Amino acid sequence: MSLETINFDDFPLQPGDRVLDLGCGEGRHAISAYLSADVHVIGLDLSERDLNTARQRLEAFVGDDVPEGKSCTFVHGSGHALPFKDNSFDKVICAEVLEHIPEYQSFLTEIKRVLKPGGLFAVSVPRFVPEWICWRLSDAYHEAEGGHVRIFTASELRNAVERQHMRRYRRHWAHSLHVPYWWLRCLLWERGETAKPVQVYHRFLVWDLMQQPPLTRLLDRIFNPIMGKSVVMYFVNEL
């Protein structure tokens, strides 16, 4: 079980789809897509360490029993110059990636290039206010190597994608219960994950992820529009 930001009910996968998870990290969305439908998934990332973790996680789920008609592979590469032909994918995911990229517009140009006409694009970034508070609480939070280089507004992200001639058809927010963890983490940054409040809240989040009790699911839905950690948008490639 993993913490997914993209909701596959809003991003329906069809049998035979080719799916790109750009900036896949340790493979949470790539593996979830592979497990949920008969699709061919490629997860791409710059971090060999994360890719190796993704491969290990995939093996833990499927072992040697690989069904026909579906696949999941992880490759090293950059979103600035995707190693794929034009119109190669039916679906593209880019979750919690663009906030790390100084020149993120080239990522969007490449996504547009490899996405088929009529294909779907799902993107998420940290939401402005929760992220702004993190930046105010700790400079180290966003100055760390590989950290966040910008804070998006929802309109900024939407406009950037729509300039690629994609039309937004859905928006939602996610992971409101994770916001207090990051505020605590930033407030107590010098003590790191050893800080008692951080440890206690982290244990709560792990418990919530594994058990998914109805009460916390309800609270998450209630608070997501108010303080969801991530804003998630879905687009269709019109041209």
Put simply, the count of helices is 9
Q: What is the distance, rounded to the nearest whole angstrom, between the alpha carbons of the first and last residues?
A: 36 Å
Structural class: alpha/beta
Mean pLDDT: 94
> Spatial order of the strands in the main sheet?
3-2-1-4-5-7-6
Fourth-tier CATH superfamily name of the domain at 18-127 and 144-175 and 230-237: Vaccinia Virus protein VP39
Quick one: how many beta strands?
Answer: 7
Low-confidence stretches: none
What global shape is seen? globular
Cα radius of gyration in angstroms: 18 Å
Using the 3D structure, state the CATH architecture of the domain at 18-127 and 144-175 and 230-237. 3-Layer(aba) Sandwich
The CATH class of the domain at 18-127 and 144-175 and 230-237 is identified as: Alpha Beta
Order of helices and strands: EHEHEEHEHHHEHHHE
Strand residue percentage: 15-25%
Helix coverage percent: 40-55%
> The biggest beta sheet, please?
7 strands, mixed
How does this structure look, described?
The protein is of the alpha/beta class and 239 residues long. It has a domain at 18-127 and 144-175 and 230-237: Vaccinia Virus protein VP39 (Rossmann fold, 3-Layer(aba) Sandwich), CATH 3.40.50. It has helices at 28-36, 48-62, 105-114, 128-137, 139-143, 154-162, 179-187, 196-211, 214-227; strands at residues 18-22, 40-45, 71-76, 89-95, 115-126, 166-174, 230-237. Strands 3-2-1-4-5-7-6 form a 7-stranded mixed beta sheet, sandwiched between helices. Strand 2, helix 2 (48-62) and strand 3 form a beta-alpha-beta unit. Helix 4 packs parallel to helix 7 and helix 7 (179-187) runs antiparallel to helix 8 (196-211).
